[in-house]
Amino acid sequence: MKNLYLMRHGQTFFNQEGLVQGACDSPLTDLGIEQAEQARDFFEKNGIEFGGIYSSTQERASDTLEIVTGRTDYTRLKGVKEWNFGLFEAQPERLQPKFRAGAVSFEDLYVPYGGEDVIQVGERMLTTLTEIMKKTLTVENPILVVSHGGAMWAFYLKVGYLPDPNIYFSNCAICHYQYENDQFLLRQVIDPLAKTVYDL
Predict the structure, then answer these.
(1) Where are the beta strands (DSSP E) in 129-194?
(2) CB-based contact 53:74 (threshold 8 Å)
(3) Which residues of 90-109 are buried (b: 16+ CB within 10 A; e: fewer)?
(4) Which pLDDT value is given to residue 166?
(5) How many other CB atoms are found less than 10 A from the CB of residue 71?
(6) Average confidence (pLDDT) over 49-68
(7) Global pTM?
(8) CB atoms inside a 10 Å sphere around CB 45
């Protein structure tokens, strides 16, 4: 059985200012850097050493990864980048479409504005993460992938999980999945900032 730690980046300037951030990018804030350092401390204290390390192609993810691991020998992948929010990019979050009644995501609400729908995001995340896990030959050292909140949520839904009030992907949230027989099983959701671990 192989282990995957799928993690969100630290706080960015857009996060701080309440702006929509998907395909566009903004740098980590000082707080975001501190958050990444806390995530690094969590892994170190728990003796977790990574084999392969990957990030999305966006600066906020790769910078977080470098702080967490102290390494630069990683691969950047478009498949784990953030949801594209189309014309809502860089706009105030309050202007975003509201969920439809009973929905658990934005579904296809961004498509008319040039963005992606939840199925597209979930499928590219699943395809990319499956490729990573299949080419990982050893089970001793887990894989780390630094991605984004919306993309992580789309993946969580794609692999068959339902919303849980205990699960929220805040900055530097970490999902520990186990991969076996072409399936991803979520085992833990870790908040290294609040120092909490939610076991499933």
Answers:
(1) 143-147, 174-180, 183-191
(2) yes
(3) beeeeeeeeeeeeeebbeeb
(4) 85
(5) 11
(6) 97
(7) 0.96
(8) 10
